[in-house]
């Protein structure tokens, strides 16, 4: 079975450029999450969707970050403009259970902003 | 104060040792609890859920103390393959849904 699929796996971009990260959740999963992980801050929840609707975006760092989920099988996380401090691993995850008992992660998008 | 706190380690133990990790959480409304494992440069994966009565999965034992808001993970007979970061995870329910909060993780190195 296909797991959570993220793209790109790795991206190096220059400061000021727009970055778009993509995610395809596991089919049938109702909830989708975007996390960011750094050595300093650990794994931080940025936003999560339930049935394509954003439920909690309190973790989104600032207006430069935006996320969408136009349908049940696709989500994007956009950073515009990007800054070096945005360098991190961005994980997308999904779960079939609204109580969130098991979260399945994608392999992550490794972002470096220079 | 962080919502979920863990000792970052690292814990360096020899093969065969028993090692225990602790985790505390701040929200008394937390509803469910888990341990995830993350290997270097990989995504986190569920290791086990944590139940109020305590539960065991092979060499791994998890305990929950709701009164003290404390979760533990015990690994017996450590293997080299247990080397990883162990993340304590707490689900907090609310009117808008639930929130899954990860601790920063405890790093374990098992050496031969």
Account of the protein in words:
- In chain A, the strands form 2 sheets. In chain A, strands 2, 4, 5, 6, 9, 10 and 11 form a 7-stranded mixed sheet that branches. In chain A, strands 1-3-8-7 form a 4-stranded antiparallel sheet, with no helix packed on it.
- Chain A has strands at residues 5-7, 10-13, 19-24, 31-38, 42-50, 53-56, 65-71, 74-79, 88-95, 104-105, 109-113.
- Helices cover 0% and strands 54% of the residues of chain A.
- In chain B, strand 9 and strand 10 form a beta hairpin.
- With 112 residues, chain B is mainly β.
- The relative contact order of chain B is 0.34.
- In chain B, 0% of the residues lie in helices and 61% in strands.
- Chain B is globular and about 50 Å long.
- In chain B, the strands form 2 sheets. In chain B, strands 2, 4, 5, 9, 10 and 11 form a 6-stranded mixed sheet that branches.
- The termini of chain B are far apart.
Topology:
The complex is a heterodimer of chains A (114) and B (112).
Chain A: E1 5-7, E2 10-13, E3 19-24, E4 31-38, E5 42-50, E6 53-56, E7 65-71, E8 74-79, E9 88-95, E10 104-105, E11 109-113
Parallel strand pairs in A: 2-11
Antiparallel strand pairs in A: 1-3, 3-8, 4-5, 4-9, 5-6, 7-8, 9-10, 9-11
Chain B: E1 4-6, E2 11-14, E3 19-25, E4 30-38, E5 44-50, E6 55-57, E7 60-65, E8 70-75, E9 84-94, E10 97-102, E11 106-111
Parallel strand pairs in B: 2-11
Antiparallel strand pairs in B: 1-3, 3-8, 4-5, 4-9, 6-7, 7-8, 9-10, 9-11
